Amino acid sequence: MKSVWHLALTLLVWFSPLALANSAAPVLLTGAEQPAKYLPLLKGKRVGLLVNQTSVVGEQHLVDFLLAQNIQVVAIFAPEHGFRGNHDAGAAIANGTDSRTGLPVWSMYGASKKPSPEQMQALDIILFDIQDVGVRYYTYISSMHYMLAAAAEFSKPMLVLDRPNPNGAYVDGPVLDLAFQSFVGMHPIPLLHGMTVGELALMIKGEGWIAQADKLTLTVIPVANYQRQQAYTLPIPPSPNLPNQQAIKLYPSLGFFEATPLSVGRGTDFPFQVIGYDKFATDGFAFTPVSTPGAALKPPLMDQLLHGEDLRHVPAGGLTLSYLMRWNQLFDSHAKTLFSAPDFMDKLAGTDQLRLQIAAGLSEAQIRASWQPQLQLFLKQRQAYLLYP
Fold it and tell me: Does the keyword Oxidoreductase apply (predicted)?
C-alpha cells in the first residue's frame, strides 16, 4: 500500500501544471525571430541585406518580412551559392534582379567581394543574416568580413542577426597562419572555432582584423535561449552540398578532400557523406556521381563508378583526421600523391604544416598536439567576444 501511495504522489507532482511549466525548455529564437529588437534600428533607413535562402523569420524570408513591415530595403547582396542558394560551389554569382521583389541583387562572389562605393552610398545601414556551419573555410564568414570592412570604410552601421553554430561545441584544428590567408580562410582562428557569426563579427572588429575597425558601429542581435554546446538542427540546408546534419557534421573532416583527386559525393544524393575513388578502394562501397544542379563545376570523377567509404550513418562530430590519413596511406601504397592540389590544401588548412605532417607519417595524436599552444591562446583571445555560455 505504501508503494502505491508513493507512486500516486510521484505522478501527481510529475504531472502538475507547475511541474510541467518548470520542465518546459525556453524556446530558442534566432536574431531574425526577435524583430522588436531590430526593427527600430531599420525604420526610416535605406537598408542593404547580405542574405541567402537561410535568412528566414519562421517560414517567411527576411526580405519579404521586412518589406511587409514597411522597411525600405534597397539592395540585396548575394554570397557564394547566390541569394536563393542554388548556385554551384565556386560558381561566380552574377548581378541581377530578384524576380519576386524587383530588388537589385549585387554579387559578393564574383569579380568583387565587397560593395562598390556607389552601392554603399545608397545605403544607411547593412544587415547580415546568414546561417553558418562553424567551419573556417565555409565562405559566408569571409563575405561577412568584406561587408564589415565596407561598413567601416564608409561609416555605415552594420547589424548582424545571429544564428546558432551547428558545430559550436568544437574548437579544433590548426589556427590559420596569415601567410595562407585566402577567401577560404581570412582570420587567425582554428578550423572549428566554436563561435557564432555574431561573435565572430565582434571579434573581427575588436581584434582590428579589418581596416578602420574603430569606425565601425556594429550591433549584434543574439540568439535567445541558446548555449553553444546544445544540438541545433538547421531548418534549411545552408548550401546545395550540405543537405543534412550528417553532411554538416562531416564537413570539417571531408572538406580537405577538395584538394585531392577523390570524390566526396558531389553529384549524388549524399554529398559530404561518402569518399570514393576510381582506381582503388577501402570498404567496398560504390557510387557514381553525376552532374546535377549544385555539382556541375568542381566534382572530380563525374559519371564514373567509384569505390570507397559510406559515412552516412557513422557517428560524426568535430574534426577527424583518420579519413585523410587512411587515404594518404592508401595512395602511398600505390606510389601516388593524395594532395594533388597542395596549394589549395594549405589554404583550406590555413597552414602547410598539416599536409607536411601527414606526408611525414605523423600520428593523429602528434598532429593534434602541435595545435594545442595556439588553440589555448585562441580560447583566451575569443573570451571577450562570447555571447553564450
Answer: no
Residue 147 CA, distance from chain mean position:
16
The torsion of the CA quartet 299, 300, 305, 308, rounded to 10 degrees, works out to -90
pLDDT digits (tens, 9 = 90+) for 16-74: 333 344 457 799 999 999 999 999 999 999 999 999 999 999 999 999 999 999 999 99
CA atoms within 13 A on the CB side of 102: 2
User: Are residues 169 and 297 part of one domain?
Assistant: no
Cell numbers for 247 = 553532411
Question: CA-CA distance, 176 to 250, in Å (whole number)?
Answer: 20
Reported as a single tens digit per residue, the pLDDT across 134-154 is 999 999 999 999 999 999 999
Q: Are residues 149 and 226 in the same domain?
A: yes
CA distances from 10 to 70, 140, 288 (A): 53, 51, 57
Whole domain around residue 117: which residue ranges? Answer: 31-233
Whether 291 and 175 map to the same domain: the answer is: no
Which pairs with CB-CB distance under 8 Å and at least 24 residues apart come from 154-157? 154/117, 154/120, 154/121, 155/215, 156/120, 156/123, 156/124, 156/125, 156/126, 157/41, 157/124, 157/125, 157/126, 157/217, 157/218, 157/219
* 92's grid cell: 561566380
229 and 251, same structural domain?
A: no
Residues 6 or more apart in contact with residue 350 via CB below 8 angstroms: 136, 174, 175, 176, 177, 180, 185, 191
| Cell of residue 370, nine digits | 602541435
Rounded distance between C-alpha atoms, residue 172 and residue 320, angstroms: 10
C-alpha grid cell for residue 52? 541567402
Q: What SS3 state is found at 67?
A: helix
Within-domain flag for 383: no
One-letter amino acid of 151:
A
Q: For residues 255 and 134, is the Cβ–Cβ distance under 8 A?
A: no
Query: Does residue 197 share a domain with residue 111?
Result: yes
CATH number, position 208: 3.40.50.12170
Residue 387: inside a domain:
no
Assess whether 53 and 111 both reside in one domain.
yes
The tally of domains found in the chain comes to: 2
Going by C-beta distance under 8 Å and a sequence separation of 6 or more, which residues neighbour residue 300? 261, 262, 263
